[in-house]
């Protein structure tokens, strides 16, 4: 059980935890440098999680903090199996974006838990009562009898809930066979009445005792119910400073007033079940009040730390800052037009503090007096918040609601918000920066410590196409199309769930469904942040149906400031009924934020002029739109949406015969990793090309067993290097390679070169310790530092240089598209041949038409499928269902026949760029797009290649030789070979001990703000070791004569800080 929630209640006690947290943070920073270590930690955490869950399977973990939402979210069984298998194999997918995302989420939770103190845990056990124990006693058989035991129960309201009990072994901790009960701690259930009777009996028997009846028993302090409650226990001697602080806090003069626990209130018998369910599901109140209580405890403890370790100037600054806030509150109370009274219970504290802060001469005594005043006010507030928190916790069992007005009013009186409470839940925390803090409370000091050690050192990921070779293309075109249809359906289900999941993170409260006069349906969220009077009452409550407006005049504008600016680009204003601005125009107030998916839907239907109006602030006005309040999807409903997507994949997997699963797995894998593989030829410059990094969830989840099976052997054994024709950097330039000889190779990176150098920061293959060539960006990769034996095989060229035996043509002619014709596998090294020019008409391109318009071109697999089915015939009609997929350059259309077969249309015609098909039935026609003849070069009557280079065609044309049938005798041919294949022997591979990253991230220096400087000073004083005096009997003294003698000596051991 994590002790994080107790830290703000024992400020001076954190000195026991700071060094431990610092050591753990440094270890985490070191692990984060190597994805293999991160993956190992991930697997270990998952295995421990499963072990703990099994141990606690039969326990009632009503308040089980060990299985927190973050931990549960990261425990993906499929990803664990995959990462575990990859670690045991060759780490082939550790840099794929899917795995990197999983590991980054895991590390984010590790850093967040560490910063919030959740890594410090007590032993968790279920409690049972025993009459053999009295108040102040406990029985935990894990610890020796007589030890003092720290123990607390969650939810932890304040320091009253941390008890220090004496360990006493009793028979109730044993089962009928005399063995210790597993996962059980025995506690006392003594009431105040029984304590009074016991004390009276002792005194009547002549036994002297100084024991008195406490304001609260241990059971009352912890709210023990014995209905499956669990507590955390630890030996007090392990945390001596924390124990001293807890003991001081629980002295009668320092303890909080007992929290009154109300009797459970019944619901009226005529109350509808739906209203009861809504009332009991109010988790927002619980979270709001708990955060409020945490904030006050932090502010109270901050004063303790300031008094103990703060300088006079820091204390003066604190008094001035708080005084400014209290002067504002007093001014608001004295405002004659719109007075806001200060709560009577705290008014005297605030006025007295302000009077001190406004003094012309603030003496140290006055400063201490002000600190004491503010601490006492916060102390009282903690008790009030605890009462409301107790009601909120019981809302699931009782018809009694907490008073949120109390929380709202008390929050207004606080001199500052406690930023970390809100910021700790931000989705980007510990991905680029730590948790925001704005004070010096105990937990903020810990966060600041972890923030300083945290390095924004993200795990590297590689482009998707580099993982394509995990499978060979062993599938048929029919299998590929079937996989593509399954992917399309899965993506549809998964993306819908992802949209709703993102909304859970960025939207709260009910949503508003709007239908415009044109019939467009959109959703507005975060209504409770703005509480527009059309929907909410004067006290901030949502109006009942019939009381709120059903039609509104709304205006769409850019969300330039305020709530949710990063996640919601547009917000919605609504006209206030009867409201007018000073100029007489209609008054509009913010209604809520426009959901992102609604914005995308709406934006696609708006022209540029309207969008500019929205962005400028003028806005898009929609009058008299129908509105309907609705409940958002719950976390459980979103999980069911994801489950539906994966259930579909499970059905798809089970429908494939066992002997076809590996082939189908390969098809599914290539669907997710082919992006960028076919769009460019290997000899194209790729330095500035856009690379996709995301491997779709479909590729991993469709056939996970087959993917894991591939990880047992090294699949990335063929690396393609490029630029082998660069004489200035290829130290093997001109070498004739024996393609059967295995040579020692190593993957290295040149970071000593200037950044503008083409080989700077690129993985390079060194052969026999000499630089050879960089690995091509779409090739498979191995980690930098990897050593192996490999053969080097120069690849056939994609172009051929021809020196024609003609005096009018001085420059070599270049022939392209060599790989598409008859001599693709032949490498020319200066051989002479007879060449002929011929104008060859390329094969027409099969297309699909809708009416008389060409929709797009059929891809290669679709051509083969239609050809086999006898449907690749000009004018042939096919009844299909059309669905648009992708965006921008990668957009395409999938056409599915009534038999379930599908084909893909790429390179869409302009009329279909903006058009979207969604399960639209249509009759399409097969057609062919003719292409113009190309000037080709024939050798031995076969096409060698095509004249694609403009300069070559101009040179031939100027010489009058670009004519049909023109022959050139004794032309010298040389292949332009720019790439080579490095075939690695898997048995010889040695991976590096130290991981090297391509991109060296710059370390972010922590800005030396006054807050950070103060935090460092406080932390130094908290962890400073005492100066020790010691003796050394055999110290070597050197006399004046140079003689060395051993004599006793005194020494001082001083903390170097």
Number of helices: 27
- β-strand number: 32
**Which term fits the overall shape?**
globular
Structural class category: alpha+beta
Which ranges are low-confidence, i.e. pLDDT below 50, for 5 or more consecutive residues? Answer: 60-74, 676-691
Taken together, the total number of domains comes to: 7
Alpha-carbon Rg, integer:
37 Å
* Largest sheet properties: 6 strands, mixed, barrel
- The order of strands across the largest sheet is 1-5-2-4-3-6
Write a structural description.
A six-stranded mixed beta barrel has the order 1-5-2-4-3-6. The two termini are 33 Å apart. The longest helix is centred in the middle third of the chain and has 30 residues, at 364-393. It has seven domains: 14-120, no CATH class; 123-249, Barwin-like endoglucanases (Beta Barrel), CATH 2.40.40.20; 273-416, no CATH class; 470-494 and 640-710, no CATH class; 511-630, no CATH class; 717-795 and 977-998, no CATH class; 845-930, no CATH class. The chain contains 27 helices and 32 strands. A hairpin with a 5-residue loop joins β10 (570-580) and β11 (586-594). It has 1057 residues and is an alpha+beta fold.
């Amino acid at each position: 059980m994590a002790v994080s929630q107790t830290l703000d209640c024992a400020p001076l006690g954190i000195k026991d935890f700071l060094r431990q947290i610092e050591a753990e943070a440094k270890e985490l920073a070191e692990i984060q440098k190597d994805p293999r270590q991160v993956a190992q930690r991930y697997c270990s955490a998952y295995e421990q999680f499963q072990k703990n869950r099994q141990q606690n399977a039969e326990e009632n973990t009503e308040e089980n903090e060990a299985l927190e939402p973050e931990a549960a979210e990261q425990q993906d069984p499929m990803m664990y199996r995959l990462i575990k298998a990859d670690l045991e194999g060759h780490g082939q997918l550790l840099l794929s974006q899917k795995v990197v995302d999983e590991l980054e989420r895991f590390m984010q939770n590790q850093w967040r838990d560490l910063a919030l103190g959740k890594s410090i845990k007590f032993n968790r056990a279920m409690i049972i009562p025993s009459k053999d124990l009295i108040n102040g006693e406990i029985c935990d058989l894990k610890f020796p009898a007589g030890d003092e035991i720290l123990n607390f129960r969650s939810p932890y309201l304040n320091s009253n809930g941390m008890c220090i009990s004496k360990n006493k072994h009793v028979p109730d901790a044993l089962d009928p066979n005399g063995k210790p009960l597993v996962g059980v701690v025995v506690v006392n259930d003594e009431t105040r009445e029984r304590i009074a009777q016991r004390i009276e009996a002792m005194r009547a028997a002549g036994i002297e005792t100084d024991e008195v009846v406490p304001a609260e028993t241990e059971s009352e302090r912890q709210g023990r119910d014995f209905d499956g409650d669990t507590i955390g226990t630890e030996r007090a001697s392990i945390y001596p400073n924390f124990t001293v602080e807890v003991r001081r806090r629980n002295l009668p003069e320092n303890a909080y007033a007992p929290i009154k626990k109300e009797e459970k209130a019944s619901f009226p018998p005529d109350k509808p079940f739906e209203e009861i369910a809504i009332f009991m599901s109010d988790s927002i109140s619980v979270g709001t009040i708990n955060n409020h209580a945490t904030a006050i405890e932090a502010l109270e403890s901050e004063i303790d730390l300031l008094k103990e370790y703060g300088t006079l100037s820091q204390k003066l600054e604190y008094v001035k800052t708080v005084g400014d806030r209290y002067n504002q509150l007093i001014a608001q109370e004295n405002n004659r037009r719109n007075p806001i009274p200060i709560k009577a219970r705290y008014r005297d504290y605030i006025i007295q503090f302000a009077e001190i802060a406004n003094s012309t001469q603030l003496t140290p005594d006055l400063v201490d007096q002000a600190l004491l005043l503010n601490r006492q006010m916060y102390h009282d507030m903690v008790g009030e918040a605890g009462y409301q928190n107790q009601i909120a916790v019981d809302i699931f069992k009782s018809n009694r609601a907490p008073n949120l007005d109390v929380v709202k009013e008390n929050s207004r009186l606080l001199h500052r918000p406690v930023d970390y409470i809100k910021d700790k839940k931000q989705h980007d925390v510990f991905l680029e920066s730590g948790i925001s803090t704005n004070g010096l409370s105990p937990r903020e000091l810990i966060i600041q410590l972890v923030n300083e050690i945290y390095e924004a050192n993200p795990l590297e990921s590689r482009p998707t196409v580099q993982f394509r070779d995990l499978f060979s293309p062993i599938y048929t075109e029919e299998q590929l199309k079937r996989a593509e249809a399954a992917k399309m359906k899965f993506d549809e289900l998964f993306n819908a769930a992802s949209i709703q999941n993102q909304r859970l993170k960025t939207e709260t409260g009910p949503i508003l469904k709007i239908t415009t006069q044109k019939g467009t349906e959109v959703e507005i969220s975060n209504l409770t942040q703005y509480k527009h009077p059309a929907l909410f009452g004067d006290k901030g409550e949502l109006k009942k149906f019939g009381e709120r407006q059903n039609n509104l005049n709304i205006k769409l504008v850019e969300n330039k400031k305020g709530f949710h600016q990063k996640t919601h680009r547009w917000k919605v204003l609504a006209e206030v009924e009867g409201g007018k601005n000073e100029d007489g125009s209609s008054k509009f107030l913010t209604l809520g934020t426009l959901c992102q998916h609604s914005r995308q839907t709406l934006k696609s239907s708006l022209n540029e002029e309207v969008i500019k109006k929205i962005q400028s602030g003028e806005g898009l006005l929609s009058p008299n739109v129908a509105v309907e309040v609705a409940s958002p999807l719950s976390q459980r409903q979103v999980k069911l949406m994801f489950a539906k997507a994966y259930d579909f994949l499970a059905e798809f997997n089970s429908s494939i015969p066992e002997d076809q699963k590996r082939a189908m797995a390969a098809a599914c894998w290539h669907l997710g990793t082919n992006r960028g593989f076919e769009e460019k030829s290997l000899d194209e410059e790729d330095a500035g090309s856009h690379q996709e990094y995301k491997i779709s969830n479909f590729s991993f989840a469709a056939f996970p067993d087959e993917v894991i099976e591939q990880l047992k052997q090294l699949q990335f054994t063929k690396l393609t290097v490029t630029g082998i024709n660069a004489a200035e950097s290829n130290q093997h330039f001109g070498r004739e390679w024996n393609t059967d000889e295995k040579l020692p190779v190593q993957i290295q990176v040149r970071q000593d070169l200037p950044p503008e150098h083409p080989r700077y920061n690129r993985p390079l293959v060194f052969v026999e310790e000499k630089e050879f060539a960089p690995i091509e960006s779409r090739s498979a990769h191995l980690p930098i530092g990897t050593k192996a034996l490999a053969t080097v095989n120069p690849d056939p060229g994609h172009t051929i240089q021809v020196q024609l035996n003609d005096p009018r043509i001085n420059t070599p002619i270049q022939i392209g598209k060599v790989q598409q014709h008859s001599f693709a596998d032949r490498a020319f090294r200066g051989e002479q041949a007879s060449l002929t020019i011929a104008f060859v008409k390329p094969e027409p391109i099969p297309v699909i038409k809708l009416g008389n318009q060409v929709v797009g071109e059929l891809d290669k697999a679709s051509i083969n499928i239609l050809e086999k089915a006898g449907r690749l015939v000009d004018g042939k009609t096919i009844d299909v269902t059309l669905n648009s997929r992708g965006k921008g350059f990668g957009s395409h259309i999938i056409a599915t026949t009534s038999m379930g077969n599908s084909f893909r249309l790429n390179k869409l015609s302009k009329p279909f760029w903006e058009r979207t098909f969604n399960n639209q039935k249509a009759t399409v026609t097969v057609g062919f797009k003719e292409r113009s003849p190309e000037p080709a070069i024939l050798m031995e009557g076969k096409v060698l290649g095509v004249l694609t280079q403009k300069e070559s065609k101009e040179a031939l044309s100027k010489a009058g030789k670009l004519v049909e049938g023109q022959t050139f005798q004794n032309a010298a041919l040389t292949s332009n070979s720019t790439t080579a294949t490095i075939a690695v022997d898997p048995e010889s591979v040695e991976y590096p001990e130290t991981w090297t990253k391509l991109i060296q991230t710059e370390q972010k220096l922590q800005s030396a703000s006054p807050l950070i400087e103060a935090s460092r000073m406080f932390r130094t004083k908290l962890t400073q070791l005492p100066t020790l005096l010691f003796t050394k009997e055999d110290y070597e003294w050197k006399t004046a004569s140079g003689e060395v003698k051993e004599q006793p000596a005194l020494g001082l051991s001083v903390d170097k800080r």
